[in-house]
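B., you asked whether I could sanity-check this one before it goes into the benchmark set. Here's the sequence:
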Amino acid sequence: IMIFGLVLLGSYIYSKYEAYIFEKQESYNDIVRHIGALNLQIGQIKSVLDATKNHPTSSKEMKNTLGVLCGTILGIVNVDWAMIRVIEKENFRTNFERIVFRGNKKELTLSISNKEIVSGIKNKEFYFGVYDCRNGKILACIVPEKEIDSNQELIIKTVVNNAGMIYLLYSNAKDEKKA
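And here's what the prediction gave me:
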């Protein structure tokens, strides 16, 4: 009976130890995923900072830059398309819009208005991150609503913020040319 009791106690202790190790392994995996997301974000920030050394000076260059940033979002989130749109807050007019599709898909049925974006009204069909350019314009990134985890959302927000900074550089350079 004593041996049976020791075997039961040993089995109990082993199962508790196994559960503890499993919990620690999950925690370790979460840390590694978070570090990976941060590394990706740092790489994204670095590439955008490199791009701002030669910031866009024409509307064509600006659209190309926004296209590259949309491509970055497609690399992070498994969606069919990504869009970056610059909207005037006062009259809800679109100043710039760039859409990048994954693969050969070119179909877009967008039913979200600029007014919804500027007002921050959430739409069940789309996820959007917004950057207030503080010059009367809003920059928004729109992707179809999918399961976007917190790391992907953080990176999308970083891309949107970087796009906003690049747009501000572009619009300031454009204003200086007019003066």
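One thing to flag: Helices lie at 2-53, 59-76, 114-119, 150-178. Otherwise nothing jumped out at me.
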